[in-house]
C-alpha cells in the first residue's frame, strides 16, 4: 500500500466501514438463533453482548493505531515472532472459513430469490458470481475511489436495514410470541459477544491507517455496535415472527424482487472483502515479501471453491472455535499493553512459551464454560481469568522465552 494512503482514514470512514461489514446475512441468521429467548430477553442479550464484544474489539484496534502495525503483528508483543506466526496461520484459516461461509450463505439467499422470481436455481453459479465480485472489490483497493464506493454501498445497506426493520416491527406479535427451540441467556450472550470478537484479529489492519486514535476507536465502535446489533435484532424478530431469519424470505414477501437481489449481493461482498483482505495482511506477518492484495485474491478464490464443495452454512460451532483461541490470546495482549504497559516488540524474542501455555489454558477454559452454559457466556469470564493469571505470573513467564542468540 502506498504511503499516500497511510493514516488518512477518518471517523466517518471507520463508521461506514464497520457498519457495512456488520450488515450481512450471516449476522442476521445468527441473531435468529436467539429466538427461543423471546424478543425482550433476546434484545437484552444482543445489546449487552455487543457492548462487551465491541469494546474489546476497539481496544485491540487502539493498539494498531498507536503502534501503526497490523493486528497479528501486534501479538509479537506478548508471544514473540514465532508465536505470532502460529496465530497468523490460525487467523488465515478462520478467515478462509469466514470467506467460504459468507459466500455460501449469500449465494443461498440470492438463489432463493432468483428461483422464486424466475426459476433460476443455480447455487454454484451464484457462488462464483459473488466470489468474482469480492475479487473485483479487492482489486479496487483502499484508495479514494474505494472509499467513495464503500460509502455508496453503506447508504444502500442502511436502506436495507430500514426496510427489514419496517417489515418486522409492524407485526404486533413480535413482543408476545415465543421462538421455537431452547437457548439459555448465557449461550445467547456468547453468540452476541463472539461476532465482534471474531473481528479482533483484523481490526488493526484498518485502524493502523486512522488519522487519530479517536477516529479509529469511536468510528469503529459506533459503526460495528449499531450495525451488528441491528442485524441481530432483525434476525431475532424474523425468526420469532416467521420462523425464518433469512432476509431473502422477508424481502421477497415485501415484493422487493430485483432490489432484494442487489442488496443481498452487496451486503455479502462488502463484508467478505474485509475477511479476504485481512487474510492477505496476516500472511505478510510470516511472508513479508508477498503482496497482500494478491494473497487476498487467492484466499477469495479458495473460499469460493470451498463454498461450492462443502456444506458449511452451519457455523455456530465455527464461531465457538474462533472464540476459544482469540479470547485468551487477546486477553493476554490487552493485559500486556494496557495494564502491564508492555508495549514494545522485542526484536530478539522468538517465542514466549509461558504466554502460549496460558493461551492454551484459556482455550480449555473457554470450552469448559461453554459446556457448563455459564450465564455470562464464555468469553467474558475466560478473558477476566486469563488476565488475572497473566498479571500474577508475568514475571515468571517472562523467563520462559526462546530468544535469538
TrEMBL record:
Keyword Transmembrane listed: yes
Subcellular location per the Swiss-Prot or TrEMBL entry: Membrane
Membrane topology: Multi-pass membrane protein
Transmembrane segments: 12-35, 41-64, 85-105, 117-140, 152-171, 221-242, 248-274, 295-312, 318-340, 349-369, 375-396
GO CC term (a single one): plasma membrane
Classification via Gene3D superfamilies: Hydantoin permease
GO molecular function terms noted in the UniProt entry: cytosine transmembrane transporter activity
Listed InterPro entries: CodB (IPR030191), Pur-cyt_permease (IPR001248), Thia_CytX (IPR012732)
Domain of life: Bacteria
Record Pfam families: Transp_cyt_pur
Entry keyword annotation includes Transmembrane: yes
Entries under CDD domains matching the protein: SLC-NCS1sbd_CobB-like (cd11484)
Keywords: Membrane, Transmembrane, Transmembrane helix
Family according to the record: Belongs to the purine-cytosine permease (2.A.39) family.
PANTHER family given in the database record: CYTOSINE PERMEASE, CYTOSINE TRANSPORTER CODB
NCBIfam families: thia_cytX
Name of the protein in question: Putative hydroxymethylpyrimidine transporter CytX
Organism: Desulfosporosinus meridiei (strain ATCC BAA-275 / DSM 13257 / KCTC 12902 / NCIMB 13706 / S10)
